[in-house]
Amino acid sequence: MNGGSRTSGGKEMKRLALALLLFMLATFIVSVSLENVHPWLAWIRAFAEAGSIGAIADWFAVTALFRHPMGLPVPHTAIIPRNKDEIGRALGIFVQENFLTPHNLTRKLAGLDAVGTTARWLQSPRNSQRCARAACEFVPGLLARLDDKDVSRFLDRIIVPWLARLDISTFAGRFLEIMTHDGRHQALLDHGLRTLDTWLSENRALIREKFSEASRYTPGIFDYYVVNRFVDGIVALLHEVALNPQHEMRARFDAATQAFIDDLKASPEYAARGRGLVRDLAGHLRSQSYYEVVWKDLQALLLEDIARPSSLVVTALAELLQAIGHGIATDAPLRGRLEAWLIDGIEPLLIRHRQEISGLISDVIATWDAKEVADKLEAEIGRDLQYIRINGTLVGGLAGVLLHGLGMSFGR
Q1: What is the C-alpha to C-alpha distance for residues 66 and 381, in angstroms, rounded to an integer?
Q2: Which positions ≥6 away from 339 have C-beta within 8 Å?
Q3: Distance between CA 159 and CA 162 in Å, rounded?
Q4: What stretches of 137-267 show up as alpha helix (H) in DSSP?
Q5: In this structure, what is the dihedral angle of CA atoms 311, 313, 319, 321, given to the nearest 10 degrees?
Q6: Phi and psi angles of residue 403, each rounded to the nearest 5 degrees, phi first
Q7: Cα 254 off chain centre by
Q8: pLDDT, tens digit, for every residue of 101-125?
Q9: C-alpha span between 133 and 123 (Å, rounded)
Q10: Which long-range contacts (CB under 8 A, 24 or more apart) does 301-306 make?
Q11: DSSP reduced 3-state for 293
Q12: What pLDDT score does 412 carry?
């Protein structure tokens, strides 16, 4: 039910409660007037009298929560507006002490399976596309707020000095060291072997043609034989290397890769080349016209691409998100590690800042207008509060009948 329906329902119940009170008062007046003629109306009078009292008492109690009854500054009325700030502080402390506890947070986070749920959601092409499109919709607004001079100033003051300090040779060496740790680069060698195998098998005719052009004085059958034997030998070697993890060529590849990494990290020659490359790049970036041209071209390219229904940027981002989702969803150990990392990261963060969360609740409520808060709360729970008035009217009437009966019994 929306807020408008709740407000409308509360007003209807308020009118019903008021009508019931007026009915009780009218019944009381009629029964008192005719009781001498019809003594049995004493029972009706007792019901109406007690019901009216109960209705008026409950109206006073309900109204006192939100405002002064009939505008009179009766003590201990308008409870919610008068104690709004205290209610906010109490609510903040209640949330802090009963919800943001280590036990509750750990139990709740552990049961959410946030990583798995997100990964499974991203697996859907439709969801990943929607997510990518939503992310890219921020780009035009962001670009519109960025001034060309601000971008140039940022590049000139931040990026160019950072590049000037960057030891690109050592950085490249450390990066390759990470990428080749535990033989990860052997997968690259395997891919290269497969690619070369496929190319040689599919281009025998081209190799024979080039061999014949280079060897004009040998017969074609000789060229055919030599090229076939050469290609077959190379393919056999490739298969041998691919199937043998301990092959000598793999060891040589490891040694060459490690030597290249060591040179990048320690060789003065590579360091000088890296500094020269950075100087050239910084020189291009310091050109104001280069900034403007590159930035404007980048803006135009991004805006034009994102505006298209078949945006390459959106598609690439969606495919990346889908691949990430699929990879996490199908890898239980990775999913478990990410979930543990998430809990280990969020739990102490929330616990450390739960007082700030409590304070935020108190501060936000303190900024609310007291009358507006009372009106909103009354609109939200007013329907149930009017039931209290109705129930008070009926229960009061029944109590009046019961007391009238007891009085007659003891009066005999």
Answers
A1: 11
A2: 113, 114, 115, 116
A3: 5
A4: 138-145, 148-154, 160-165, 168-179, 185-202, 204-214, 220-243, 248-266
A5: -130
A6: -65, -35
A7: 43
A8: 766 766 776 667 788 888 899 989 8
A9: 15
A10: 302/139, 302/143, 303/139, 303/140, 303/143, 306/136, 306/137, 306/139, 306/140
A11: helix
A12: 52
Distance CA 219, CA 223 (A): 7
Q: Which tens digit of pLDDT belongs to each residue from 136-145?
A: 888 888 777 7
pLDDT at 287 over 70: no
19, pLDDT greater than 80:
yes
Mean pLDDT value across residues 277-298: 69
pLDDT in tens, 46-98: 888 888 888 888 888 777 777 777 777 777 777 777 777 787 788 777 777 77
Question: What pLDDT does 72 receive?
Answer: 74
C-alpha to C-alpha distance for 99 and 387, rounded to whole angstroms: 31
Mark 66-94 as b/e (b = at least 16 C-beta within 10 Å). bbebeeeeeeebbebbeebeebbbeebee
* Banded pLDDT at 1 (limits 50, 70, 90): very low
What is the chain's alpha carbon radius of gyration, rounded to the nearest angstrom?
41
DSSP per-residue string spanning 304-354: HHHHSTT-HHHHHHHHHHHHHHHHHHT-HHHHHHHHHHHHHHHHHHHHHTH
CA distance 55 to 59: 6
Instruction: Return the closest-CA partner of residue 360 out of 80, 83, 104, 89.
Output: 89
At 352, list the tokens.
């450390």
